[in-house]
Write the structure tokens for this entry.
Amino acid sequence: MGTTGKWRCLDCGNEFKASVGGGFHFILYRCVQCDRTKSVDVERSSSGEWIPTDQSGVGVCQRCGGQLRDDINPMCRKCKSRNTEQLEIEVYYD
Ligand SMILES: [Zn+2]
Ligand SMILES: [Zn+2]
């Protein structure tokens, strides 16, 4: 289950909105460099892991070519720190 909500940067105090997580059949990945998000459709493999349905896999960021990960916090727009915490959850989606 993913959420959209308000986040705060613990380094500079900036507050911003971000979406995190994934849904039942997709995972939300984010770029390690520019924080652009990409939802990737996944399916359960025979070994029980969730893997991208697309044979080419998760790929890289379409904007900057950076690595995509699903285990990092949203980046602060202001100072580019990932030392951030979620303040409020506004929307659940799946
Ligand atoms: Zn990027
Ligand atoms: Zn910041």
